Amino acid sequence: MAGVKKIYFGTNTKMYKTIGETVSYLQDxxxxxxxxxxxxxxxxxxxxxxxxxxxxxxxxxERIAIGAQNMGWGDAGxxxxxxxxxxxxxxxxxxxxIGHSERRNVLNETDExxxxxxxxxxxHGFTVLxxxxxxSEEKQNDVGNEALRRQLKIGLKDLDINNARNIWIGYEPVWxxxxxxxxxxADYVREKHLIIKKTLKEIFGKEAGxxxxxxxxxxxxxxxAVSLIQTExxxxxxxxxxxxxxxxxxxxxxxxx
Length: 257
Ligand code: PGA
Description:
The chain is of the alpha/beta class. It is 41% helix and 15% strand. It has helices at 19-32, 49-58, 85-90, 101-105, 111-123, 136-140, 144-155, 186-204, 206-211, 225-229, 246-256; strands at residues 7-12, 41-46, 65-68, 95-98, 127-132, 167-171, 214-217, 236-239. It has an eight-stranded parallel β-barrel, surrounded by four helices. Helix 1 packs parallel to helix 11 and helix 5 (111-123) runs parallel beside helix 7. The radius of gyration is 17 Å and the shape is globular. The structure holds 2-phosphoglycolic acid. The site of 2-phosphoglycolic acid has 13 residues, from strand 8.
């Protein structure tokens, strides 16, 4: 099966799910995905910090990767409220999400800060899920493509071709996320994923850039998952609410593949 392109499915549980809820969710998700061929699928779950240690122990790493929702940019230091790569390594986490829409747009993180985090995570050997997405204002002003290119070019600044294999991109239009979000149409997603892929090739070179997986997120649900995964340029789905019930997440994955 070497060389088979994987399809990515993941969820971030945000500030939901306690330790106990995360463990039982992961046990259920293992059950509902036990028949899947993991040579073809990359499944990941990004729970809260407090649940990480138990989460890592609950899953088989070859079936579900566990990631952290954020990471500080140094091994140790005066960064109250952040978590260090050393602390994540200590509990066996090897995937970290950086720049989720809520970190950028609610907690005001900048592209420069995301870049510092990305560089630090990469230097520790983590796989980084860098999330990007245009706001509704940027969309209305027709500068969505510029916003995505800026987030990629600054967020991935100073990385080179050898780092490409440790980068995943989550494309999540800010206006599509959450309760009030409206899912993007397949045509819109196609256009944006092609812009993102073009930019990744500029950053990493054609061959390495092409291999960086680009996942779509933002109101993915049972109705739109199949058409989104079939959309050109979409390598996977990054799902919030619809994935927080393990059985439903399993159903979406089965339908999508
Ligand atoms: P949603 O969340 O699927 O509930 O819109 C997506 C996200 O924030 O990653």
